[in-house]
Design brief:
By secondary structure, the protein is of the alpha/beta class. It has two domains: about 230 residues, Spore Coat Polysaccharide Biosynthesis Protein SpsA, Chain A; about 55 residues, no CATH class. It is built from eleven helices and nine strands. Strands 1, 2, 3, 4, 5, 6, 7, 8 and 9 form a nine-stranded mixed sheet that branches. Strand 2, helix 2 and strand 3 form a beta-alpha-beta unit. Helix 1 packs parallel to helix 2 and helix 9 runs antiparallel to helix 10. The longest helix has about 30 residues. The two termini are about 20 Å apart.
Amino acid sequence: MPMASPGVSVIICCYNSTDRLEATLQHLAAQQVPASLSWEVLVIDNASTDNTAVFAQNTWQQTGATTPLRVIHEPRAGQHYARNKGVAEAQYETLVFCDDDNWLCKAYVATAFEVMAGDAAIGAAGGRNEPVSNIETYPDWFPTYRDKYALGTPATASGDVSQKGFVLGAGMITRRTLFHQMFEERYPSLLNGRNGETLTTGDDFEYCKRLLLRGYKLYYDERLLLHHFIPRERLTIPYRERLMDGILQAGIVLQEYDHALRFYRRNRHKNRWRLLLLTPFRIWLAQKGWSKRVIEEEKLTLFYTAPIAWNPHPVRTPIKKFMYRR
C-alpha cells in the first residue's frame, strides 16, 4: 500500500444521492481550511441507478470550490465496500467519512487534521451530531430513538471516549493506514453496512471496536459539529422499524466484540499461557461453589486463551483470529 501524504480526504459514500447531496457539497465547499493544508473530496458512487456521479460533479463546479473532487465508482452495493474503495483511492492519511446527508461545520476538515496530527494513539475521532429536517415537527417518538439516527453528543467535554466503545460513524475521522490494517483481506468485516435497499448497519462501530482491540483510543472533540439531514420520509414508523431491525441484527455481532474487549481489557497485561493453565481450575472451583468467579467469564477467558478452537463460533472465532493476528 503506497504511503499517503499529510492532508485530509473526505469520503462521501453515495447510493442514489441526488436528493441529498447538494447541501452536503455546499457545506464542504464552505470549509475554512488553511492554505497550507491539502485536502480533497471523494464521492463514491456505490451502485447508484440515478445520475449521482454527474450531479456531484456539476454541483461542485457550481459552488466555485477549488478543492479537487473526484467521483469513483464502486459496483458492489454496501457502505463498507464503498468506504474500502474510498480509502484505497484516498491521497491523504487523515480520512473523514461524511455521509451524503451530513452538513459539516466550517472548521470540520481543519479540526480533523489537527486532532489526528496531535496524538498518534488516536485511532478514530468524532464530534457531536445534531438533526435537521424538512419536517415541521418531529414525531413524539423521535427523542427515544434519536441516537439510532447517528445523533448525539458523546461526552460533556473533549477527551478520550474509549470506554464508550465507539464514536459516531457519521463524520468519523480516522487514518488511512489504520483502516487498511483493521480490514485487511485476511480479516474481512463481519458487517458490511447498509446498501441502499436494506438498513443493515454497524460496520463503523465494528471498526471502532477493532481499533480498541489493537490498543488505539477513541477521541471526542466538541469543535466537530455536523448536522444530519433527516427527511420526513425517514421519520415514519415503518422506516424506524426497518432501521431498528438492522441495528438489532448488527447488535448480535457487536455484542461479541464487546465480550472480546472485556477479555482484552481485563487480561492484556497478563501472560496468556498462564491464564490458559489456570482457567480450567477456576471454572471447576466456580462450578463446585468454592469460588465467586463468574463461570461464563471464565469460559470466555478459556476461549480467547486457547490456541485451538474446539468449538468454532461463526462470530467469536473470526474476532479471536483478528486479536491474535501477526
